[in-house]
Amino acid sequence: MTASRLTVAQALVQAMTAQWTVVAGERQRVFAGVWAIFGHGNVAALGEALYAARDVLPTLRAHNEQAMGHAAIAYAKASQRRRMMACTTSIGPGATNLVTAAAVAHVNRLPLLLLPGDVFASRAPDPVLQQVEDFGDGLVTANDCLRPVSRYFDRITRPEQLLRAFPRAMQVLTDPASCGPVTLALCQDVQAEAHDWPRSFFEERVWSARRPPPDPRELAEAAEVLGAARCPLIVCGGGVLYSEAGTALRAFCERHGVPSGETQAGKSALPASHALNLGGVGVTGTAAANTLAADADAILAVGTRLSDFTTGSGALFRAPGRRIVALNVQPYDADKYQALPLVADAREGLTRLSEALGDYRAPREWTERAQRAHTEWLRTASAFTAPAAPPALPSDAQVIGAVQRASEASDIVVCAAGGLPGELHRHWQAAQPGGYHLEYGYSCMGYEIAGALGVKLAQPQREVIVMVGDGSYLMLNSEIATSVRLNARLIVVLLDNGGFGCIERMQRSTGNASFNNLRPAADRSLDLVAHARSLGALSCAVGSTAELESAIAAARRADRTTVLVIGTDPVASTAAGGCWWDVPVPEVSERAEIRAARAAYTKARRRRADEA
After folding, report:
1. Is residue 337, in this structure, part of any structural domain at all?
2. Are 148 and 235 within one domain?
3. Residue 271 domain-assigned (yes or no)
4. Residue 609 lies in a domain
5. How far is CA 452 from CA 72, 195, 436, in A?
6. Considering 188, 207, 226, which residue would you say is the last residue of a domain?
7. 400 shares its domain with 533
8. For 50-78, how does the pLDDT look when each residue is reduced to its tens digit (9 = 90+)?
């Protein structure tokens, strides 16, 4: 067998460039690029290999390792997991900075290849710079922090190990059921070692989306449950988008008269304007979706993890004798809440389940009730998103309304943690698949701007609008500079409510005193407009929602990223929709307010137990 003599780093990069996929009929490389912050653990060997391949595998430099992980994750999500990116760091703090991003990818089932440098496999110069030493375990390195947040973890201590590790990594990264982050920790001496590699290791391979069909027995049982339902409801999760099953979902709803609620990850799979789309479901859901969810006797959960925010901590679905059918490609998720599992690809499962149901339609009264609820919610929501009247500070919902009025159908809104995701879940009207990009699986502050950069790289033809609070902005904003350098223009709407307004509201709602969340009112030292300009962006302050609409229109014509800063009310939130969420309140306290909150909490838990 003919062999190529290459270093481990060169072989890895060459193997990465040989991986292909097909997107919309076009053959494209699986790896769109590598985010890299170089250091002594990766610059000499992996850096040399990436330089040689820069024309086919672009290397991108960020300013923070966590941020480049977020950008790579968002790229994969915006690509429906068909394409992805890798991240490389040195050993030590560069590697451990990846842990948060890896957790984001792990929770959200998104592909991310992590290539951190590691200690010397030979151990000759131990301890090397930034090496973490364990007094009782000579095998431990800083990269072991990545084990619990990796779907597959391997440490390359000999060159030939890569022959087995890389194919395993690719299988995990491209498998719809096991998809998640992969860590290949690269010992820095081994990276530079040469080896005779078989030519077969570099043969091109095309990875296609696996679409497992449902088991006939599970399909028959699911059809029996849904076929007998008087009040069926679909919960649309992110798996619908990853499976590109939006058309199948719409056909299912229309053929069988079944309404659908959407999780944060599933939002935009069905157009918001569709009469059977009830909007967000769960803790941050609409009154339309949650009212019908409470009465649903059969719930078809498609491509969702059924997290506590989707299920109202298990209290949302409470009709007597209710059944959950969980259509999911991952058996782990399909078995939650004693559901009847239907393990399959979302598109295949919806199509075959619809065929199995035949002429079944939900009772007309139920379908019409859903359509009325859809219309009534839009009317209710419009009161919360209507323009704010100066000089009062606008609420988050009013800012969302302004952004929506200034947006186009093809725009992509990006957000993550805090109070904004809840308001967006209720109010944003997504018109096209992928137009709503929220990281709420891990609810990671700081994802917003870095994630938006990844989205823009994946969807350069679409406008990307970031909505971020001042708390998240201050936590991680450095990739504004990267967006300017890469000419990846973003529109950033920065809502300044003076701190962590969402947690302030939660703190007060549980009877606690206001403490450690908001900046003092007298603190005027923070100039967010000047800060954004210092990173190379255009920036201005807007005094009203009307000004914001005009500023967004101008930002669309700008030649670089624009940051628009608007002050908002830290207290106001939408007093409609939503459902209970289990937030434990102290059982004993000197504060009367906490004792009252505890009594209400205990009552709610008992009610949930009675209805379970």
Report:
1. yes
2. no
3. yes
4. no
5. 10, 40, 11
6. 207
7. yes
8. 999 999 999 999 999 999 999 999 999 99
- Asked if 508 and 514 touch (Cβ cutoff 8 Å), the reply is yes
Stretch 338-362: mean pLDDT? 98
**What are the pLDDT digits (tens) for 42-51?**
999 999 999 9
Listed in order, strand segments (DSSP E) in 276-410 are 277-280, 298-302, 323-328, 340-343
Look at residues 261, 125, 242 and name the one whose alpha carbon lies nearest to residue 189: 125
Say how far apart CA 259 and CA 262 lie, in whole Å: 10
At 183, which helix (H) or strand (E)?
strand 181-187
The 8 Å CB, 24+ separation contacts for 162-168 are 162/8, 162/11, 162/12, 162/15, 163/197, 163/198, 163/201, 166/12, 166/15, 166/201
Give me the number of domains the chain comprises: 3
The predicted-structure confidence for 455-490, as pLDDT tens digits, reads as follows 999 999 999 999 999 999 999 999 999 999 999 999
pLDDT in tens, 274-299: 999 999 999 999 999 999 999 999 99
Q: Name every residue whose Cβ is closer than 8 Å to that of residue 312 and which is 6 or more positions away in sequence.
A: 282, 283, 290, 579, 580, 581
User: Where does a domain end: 172, 207, 242?
Assistant: 207
H or E, element range at 562: strand 562-567
Helix (H, G, I), strand (E, B) or coil at 494: strand
pTM above 0.70, yes or no: yes
**Closest among 108, 115, 68, 137 to 438, alpha carbons compared:** 108
Separation of alpha carbons 42 and 36, rounded Å: 9
Q: What's the pLDDT band for 388 if we cut at 50, 70, 90?
A: confident
DSSP one-letter string for 514-531: P-SSB--TT-----HHHH
Give alpha helix (H) positions in 386-527.
Answer: 396-405, 420-427, 447-458, 470-475, 479-485, 501-509
Residues 463, 504 within the same domain: yes
Q: Are residues 52 and 182 in the same domain?
A: yes
Place of tokens 């690509």: 79
- Give me the torsion for CA of 477, 481, 482, 485, rounded to 10°: 170
Asked if residue 579 belongs to a domain, the reply is: no
Interhelix angle for 346-357 vs 246-256, to 10°?
A: 20
Q: What tokens were used for 252? A: 């299912």
Tokens of 171: 């299988």
Q: Is 446 found in the same domain as 337?
A: no
**Structure token digits, residue 367:** 């379908």
Same domain flag for 395 and 503 = yes
Three-class DSSP category at 116: strand
Distance, in Å, from the CA atom of 258 to the CA atom of 296, rounded to the nearest integer, reads: 11
| CATH assignment at residue 505 | 3.40.50.970
Co-location of 176 and 28 in the same domain: yes
**What is the residue range of 151's domain?**
3-207
Q: Which of 241, 151, 150 is nearest to 437 (CA)?
A: 241
Check whether residue 102 and residue 232 sit in a common domain. no
Tell the residue number behind the tokens 């106001």, with chain if given.
572
